[in-house]
Amino acid sequence: MSETSAVVDPLTAALPRVSPWMRLGRRALGHHGFMAGALVLGAIVLLALFAPLLAPHDPYAQDVSLRLIPPVWDAKGSWDHVFGTDKLGRDYLSRLIYGARISLMIGGLAALISGLIGTALGVAAGYFGGKVDAAISYLITTRLSMPVVLVALAVASLVGGSLKIVILVLGFLLWDRFAVVTRVATQQIRHAEYIAAAQCIGASTWRIVVSEILPNILNALIVVATLEMAHAILLEATLSFLGLGVPPPEPSWGLMIAEGKQYMFFKPWVIVIPGVALLVLVLAINLLGDGVRDVTAPENRN
After folding, report:
1. pTM above 0.90?
2. What is the CATH number of the domain that holds 139?
3. 13 or 286, which is more confident?
4. Which residues contact 192 (CB under 8 A, 6 or more apart)?
5. Residue 199, domain extent
């Protein structure tokens, strides 16, 4: 009986072993939110990268004789300007495509800067505790007491609006959520057995943080990074709408909405088109972040 029970089922043995990457790919393909966000965001990134090849016109070229041409779906529209033109006769589709570059650049770089600052502070507070935690918690509380929009408006009005200023201002203002999340996540795992084992074999603090802590809080970081990227894009649009963000004639989506607000009741497409573009981009980023969190969650790694 013992020999019979020890025999391995030949059908089971013949099945190919599925690698973790293959299981991860299957979960990703089966997650509808992840796929939708990835496809839409990927399409927007490709549009931004190949904007010089895809844009039908120069986004800065002005021709007042062509001002406020309606989109092609309007009875007076033209295929020469699929999304119409703005008040200066600039092609709206071309400006929309080039505007994706600005939104993605600001969102990505601002999230990167704030992520580096907030993650460093949060991991330090959660791992060391004590006075370090108290000092960093005070910094977090101080930052949370300052409204982001008001501070950004004040800095932009004093220094002046430009692409670099907007990126730096948002990067140095949006780190608090990274710090709060990483602090709590690090506190939850700092006494785990694998952390204690690494300390026992003499691993340095830097090695423990990089090899043990950061990989185990990566899911939380991904979610926060996507939220802050979307937040930065919306804040840039707000600043540009108020005239303190990206200066004209750059094709910022927020600036396009600001330039078209005086025509919103007569030519509503001048604000609807960039507004829908912002909505789609922010929604795609959030769907992708939620999908990555779900796909890479530890409970799904079977």
Report:
1. no
2. 1.10.3720.10
3. 286
4. none
5. 28-300
